[in-house]
Specification:
Blueprint (H helix, E strand, L loop, with lengths): L1 E3 L3 E5 L2 E3 L11 E5 L5 E8 L5 E9 L1 E6 L8 E3 L1 E7 L6 H10 L5 E2 L1 H9 L4 E7 L10 E4 L10 H6 L16 E6 L7 E2 L5 E2 L10 E2 L3 E4 L4 E4 L4 E5 L2 E5 L1 E4 L10 E3 L2 E4 L8 E4 L3 E3 L3 E2 L2 E4 L3 E3 L3 E2 L2 E4 L6 H32 L8 H11 L3 H18 L7 H11 L14 H18 L8 E3 L2 E2 L2 E4 L3 E3 L3 E9 L2 E15 L2 E7 L7 E5 L4 E7 L4 E4 L2 E4 L4 E8 L6 E5 L1
Parallel strand pairs: 1-8, 16-20, 21-23, 22-24, 23-25, 24-27, 25-28, 26-29, 27-30, 28-31, 29-32, 30-33, 31-34, 32-35, 33-35, 34-36, 35-36, 36-37, 36-38, 37-39, 38-40
Antiparallel strand pairs: 2-3, 2-4, 5-6, 6-11, 7-9, 10-11, 12-13, 13-18, 14-15, 17-18, 19-20, 39-42, 40-41, 42-43
Length: 565
């Protein structure tokens, strides 16, 4: 019996045997000893960004084996033992350099490292060629050295608060430094290992603009406070907002509260009353069937029953007006390009028509291809008229009047008064200025935080969180995320990005609707039958009670899908 061993292949009657086999005639037995040759190889690898070249070397020693002698026996294991190892040959560095040259690789070549790797006779890898990395630009930035977030007042502090203790809310004094502007620094292009230029982007610039109560010094690089108050930084504009403190309930005794800065109420807001603040509204007590409008965050410490609460959207229609201004800017650019094209065609095909004014060609286009522009200017004009009637917007009156005057040139026979197509660019720039001023009045991160909530309307440009045990029959609109900690029964709840809820709906009550944008999602621990889930334009109604579900929009089918969390 012959048993195959290590490092040898045994054939009997030209058939490889891999297990103990009885041999009848040794004349048909053949043993082949495994032999390996020494091997030296290398590989040149260029990184995906073409900034580095790596040399990988591999060395394998050759091995010579011979069959081991064994005494005669009926059962023999045939093995081969190692007799000699043959060391691999070093790799010639010239081969590596020649391949680098053939592949057009230049840059900083490390010749000494190449020679070291080729002669090491062991597997290794190292970077042998590097490009010149680009020096990235430094973006201009505004460094705020003041605290923008108010310091929270504890219950003990609230009991003792008076006008002398306003510094519990963060504030600055006259002359304090608020921010420092660091100008942009351009970068420098680099070179990859093939000698090609690696470009760098131009640096971005973040402007430091001074608003109310702020003065710029040192050529606009340092902002200091001109009045005491709370620093506010919105849309690149740094300003000072002052605060009013109401130490009692907002009632007939105090009257409605209307203030451009922050409002801190230590009591409740009673039925029929209204708070209008340009900054934060911080209510320590309850709000009963009242209205709260804030340019920034709204915090209600206890219950919200009835009424309306908005945050970050002081002027109704302001967001829509800003979007309309953005659309009109793009439409005017397209109109200008179409006007030039139409005028050139007239010069070539109708010389008499080419004598017409630029306003004539623009009027033709507004009546045919760009009929939406006059309609959009009419909508904008209606909004601006309301804007001019509101005393809160005195600072923008001059700009709003200028836009109203320009808008008349795009209505009726107005386009005929346009002497040059270049005026469209000036109008677009004017619209951009107004859009920037409007957006500076909206705090995109304005949030609402309340406890128990019932029969109320809530709207915020940022996130909304309702922490109480019950949210009942409310209408909630969030520009970001919506958090519902308690049981959510009846009503309509919308968030642009996401909704996170505990218990939603109740089979014995009116409908409950949850809605997010197309890219958003809805998560809930418990969802009762009858709850309507809407994502973008797709919606579904829950038929059976579900637990720990996440709802999203399937981009392929356009339907609402749900998966377990």
């Amino acid at each position: 019996m012959v048993i195959p061993g290590e490092n040898v292949a045994i054939y009997y009657r030209n058939t490889l045997i891999d297990q103990p086999t009885v041999i009848e005639d040794v004349g048909y037995l053949r043993a082949i000893v495994k032999q390996t040759k020494p091997e030296s190889s290398y590989e040149i690898i260029v990184s995906p960004n073409k900034m580095e070249v790596t040399l990988v070397t591999r060395f394998r020693a050759g091995k010579i084996y011979r069959i081991c002698d064994v005494p005669a026996a009926q059962k023999i294991t045939v093995r081969a033992e190692l007799v000699e190892e043959i060391a691999p040959e070093p790799i010639s560095p010239q081969l590596v350099l020649k391949e680098l040259e053939s592949r057009g690789i230049v840059g900083e070549i490390r010749y000494d490292l190449i020679a070291q790797l080729c002669a090491a006779l062991k597997d290794s890898a190292a970077v042998i060629v590097t490009g010149i990395p680009p020096r990235q630009p430094v973006d201009g930035r505004v460094e705020l050295v003041c605290d923008l977030q108010p310091r929270l007042i504890s219950a003990g502090d609230a009991e003792r608060i008076d006008y002398r203790e306003r510094r519990l809310i963060n504030s600055v004094d006259v002359g304090e430094v608020l921010a420092v502007w660091h100008p942009p620094v351009p970068g420098m292009a680099g070179r990859n290992v093939y000698g090609d230029e690696v470009p760098v982007r131009p640096p971005k610039n973040q402007e430091l603009l001074a608003g109310r109560g702020v003065k710029l010094l040192n050529n606009g690089r340092i902002a200091v406070a001109e009045i005491p108050g709370r620093p506010v930084y919105r849309s690149g504009v740094l300003s000072i907002s002052q605060q009013v403190v109401v130490e009692q309930d907002v009632s007939l005794t105090t009257g409605n509260i209307r203030f451009k800065g922050d409002v801190l109420v230590l009591g409740n807001v009673n039925e029929g009353m209204e708070i209008e603040a340009g900054g934060i509204v911080d209510l320590k007590g309850n709000c009963y069937h009242a209205k709260i409008h804030a340019g920034s965050h709204v915090r209600i410490g206890k219950k919200l029953i009835g009424g309306t609460v908005t945050a970050g959207i002081m002027e109704p229609g302001l967001t829509e007006a800003a979007e309309l201004l953005s659309k009109l800017q793009k439409e005017l650019q397209l109109l200008a390009a179409a006007g030039l094209q139409l005028k050139q065609q007239a010069v070539q095909g109708a010389p008499k028509l080419a004598l017409r004014s630029d306003g004539y060609f623009l009027k033709l286009l507004l009546e045919t291809r760009f009929t939406q522009i006059p309609k959009q200017f009419l909508q904008l004009g209606a909004y601006l008229q309301k804007l001019l009637e509101n005393q809160e917007f005195d600072e923008r009156s001059e700009l709003a009047v200028a836009v109203c005057t320009r808008s008349k040139r795009f209505l009726g026979l107005g386009p005929l008064s346009i002497s040059s197509i270049d005026e469209l660019g000036e109008t677009a720039a004017l619209l951009g200025d107004l859009k920037r001023y409007l957006e500076s009045s909206v705090d995109d991160q304005a949030q609402i935080a309340v406890g128990y909530c019932q029969n109320a309307y809530l709207e915020a440009s940022g996130s909304i969180s309702i922490r109480g045990p019950l949210i009942y029959s409310c209408t909630v609109i969030s520009g970001a995320d919506l958090l519902l900690d308690g049981e959510c029964r009846c009503g309509s709840y919308y968030a642009k990005q996401s909704i996170s809820a505990e218990v939603v709906g109740s089979g014995a009550m009116a409908a409950t609707k949850l809605e997010v944008g197309e890219d958003g999602y809805i998560r809930a621990a418990v969802v009762h039958p009858g709850v309507e889930i809407k994502i973008g334009s797709a919606k579904t109604v829950i038929q059976h009670k579900q637990y720990y579900q996440e709802y999203r929009l399937d981009p392929e089918t356009g339907l609402v899908t749900n998966t377990g969390m």
